[in-house]
Specification:
Shape: globular
CATH architecture of the largest domain: Alpha-Beta Complex
Radius of gyration: 20 Å
Distance between the termini: 20 Å
Low-confidence stretches: none
CATH class of the largest domain: Alpha Beta
CATH topology of the largest domain: 2-enoyl-CoA Hydratase, Chain A, domain 1
Number of strands: 9
Structural class: alpha/beta
Oligomer: single chain
CATH superfamily of the largest domain: 2-enoyl-CoA Hydratase, Chain A, domain 1
Strand order of the largest sheet: 1-2-3-4-6-9
C-alpha cells in the first residue's frame, strides 16, 4: 500500500487501517489538498486485500471544523472578480462535484468504515462521517450541520445521507438551525452509535475494539453484507431478497464457509482468509 499526503496519514495494523485527518494545527479544516488526496487514499485502501476495516480518525484537538473558508472564500471572490458569471458558475459547479465525489469515494469502499470523532465535527466533517458506516464519539464531541450559518446549502452529502440515519424532523432541525449538539444528544438522535470517555484516546480504543471484532469475521461475508445493505436503497423487499440470493449463490462455496463449518465441528475459533 503506497500513499502519501500533507493532510492525510494512512496507517495499517494487521487487518485494520486508520486514515488520519492530519492537519491538526488548522483543526483539520478541509482544503484543496484534502479533496484531492482523499480519493487517492481510498484507492490505496481498496487495492490492499489485507485491509478488512477502516477507521477514520483525526489528529489534534478537533475531528474537523469543516471547509477551509479562508481558502474557499478567497478562491470564490477571485473567480467572481476575474471571470464572467457563467464561467464562475461553471467552475463552482465543477469544484462542488469534485468534492462530492471525494466524499462518495469513502462511502463506496467495500470494507466497513468506522468514524472515531472527538472535539468539533462541523459542516464538511458531518459530510465525511455520514459517508461512514458506523460513527463513534468521545464525550467531548460536538456536531453541527453549520452551513446555513455561513450562507451555504450543505452540498457534500449531508442532506442526502443524513435522512438515512436520522428521522426527517431531526434532519430538518439540525440543517435549518445550524445548532450545535453534544455527543449525548447525537447518540440520542442516532447520529452516533455510542459515546466513549472524554477524549480521542477513549473513542479510538472503542473504534479499534469494534474494528477488531469485525475483522475477525469472514471478509467475504462482511463485504457482502455491506454490499447488500447498500443495494437495498431504491429496491423493494423482494428485489433486495433477490439481490442477496444472487450474491450468496456466487459466494456460498467459499473457503471461508468451509473454515467456519470446520471450526464449529472442531470447537475452535475460525481463521478466515477471505477466499
Amino acid at each position: 500500500m503506497t500513499f502519501s499526503s500533507d493532510v492525510l496519514t494512512l496507517n495499517l495494523a494487521g487487518p485494520v487501517a486508520t486514515l488520519w485527518l492530519d492537519r491538526g494545527e488548522k483543526r483539520n479544516a478541509l482544503g484543496g489538498a484534502f479533496w484531492h488526496d482523499l480519493p487517492l487514499a481510498v484507492k490505496a485502501i481498496g487495492e490492499d486485500p489485507s485491509i478488512r476495516v477502516l477507521v477514520v480518525a483525526a489528529k489534534g484537538p478537533h475531528f474537523c471544523v469543516g471547509l477551509d473558508l479562508t481558502e474557499f472564500g478567497g478562491g470564490l471572490l477571485s473567480a467572481e472578480e476575474t471571470s464572467s458569471r457563467a464561467t464562475s458558475n461553471a467552475r463552482t459547479y465543477d469544484a462542488v462535484r469534485a468534492m462530492q465525489n471525494s466524499v462518495t469515494s469513502l462511502g463506496e469502499l467495500p470494507v466497513p468504515v468506522i468514524a472515531a470523532v472527538h472535539g468539533c465535527c462541523i459542516g464538511g466533517g458531518v459530510d465525511l462521517i455520514t459517508a461512514c458506516d458506523i460513527r463513534l464519539a468521545s464525550g467531548d464531541a460536538l456536531f453541527s450541520v453549520r452551513e446555513a450559518k455561513v450562507a451555504i446549502v450543505a452540498d457534500l452529502g449531508t442532506l442526502q445521507r443524513l435522512p438515512r440515519i436520522l428521522s426527517a424532523g431531526h434532519v430538518a432541525e439540525l440543517a435549518f438551525s445550524a445548532k450545535d449538539i453534544d455527543a449525548a444528544r447525537a447518540a440520542a438522535l442516532g447520529l452516533v452509535n455510542s459515546v466513549h470517555g472524554t477524549g480521542p484516546e477513549d473513542v479510538l480504543a472503542a473504534a479499534y475494539e469494534l474494528a477488531t471484532q469485525i475483522a475477525a469475521n469472514s471478509p467475504i461475508a462482511v463485504k457482502g453484507t455491506k454490499a447488500v445493505l447498500a443495494a437495498n436503497d431504491g429496491r423493494t423487499v423482494d428485489e433486495g431478497l433477490d439481490f442477496v440470493a444472487r450474491w450468496n449463490t456466487m459466494y456460498l462455496q467459499s473457503n471461508d464457509l468451509r473454515e467456519a463449518l470446520s471450526a464449529f465441528v472442531e470447537r475452535r475459533a475460525p481463521v478466515f482468509n477471505g477466499d
